[in-house]
Amino acid sequence: MRKNAARLGRRNGIRLAYVPEIQPDELLHSWLGRVAKTNCIPLLSPNSWGETLRSGSIIPDLPTDLLNLMNWLSDDSPYSSVQQLIDLGTMYPYHRSFLSPERHAEVQEKLLHGDCTGLKTLLGRVANGFGANPNLNYCTECVSEQIKTNGHSYWCRQHQMPGVKVCVKHHRPLQTLATPRAVGEFLYPPVEASWMCNSPSASVTQMQMRFARLNNELLSANLTPIDVPTRIRAYADEAKIKGYINRNGNVDKAALANALLHHYDNFSGLAFRERLLSSRSMPLAWVHAMFTRSAKSQHPICHLLMIGFLFTSVANFMEKVAGIRTSSTASYTPTVGDSLLTEMEELEQALLKDLSLSCREVAKRLQLSITTVVSRRRQLRLPISSRRKTVSIDDIERIKQSLSLGTPVAEVAVALSTSVSTVYRIRSEFADELERATEPNAKVQKDRDALRSLIGTNRELSINEIRSMNPALYARIYRNDREWMQEIMPRRKAYVSSDRANWALRDDKFCGILDKFVLEFLRNKNRGQLTYALMLNQLPEATVRNNLHKMPRLNILLQAYVESKPAYSRFRVRNAVNALRNSGSKFSKSAVQRTAGIKNWTPELDACLNRHLEIIL
Ligand SMILES: [Zn+2]
Question: How far is the CA of 206 from the centre of ligand 1 (A)?
Answer without folding.
Answer: 16
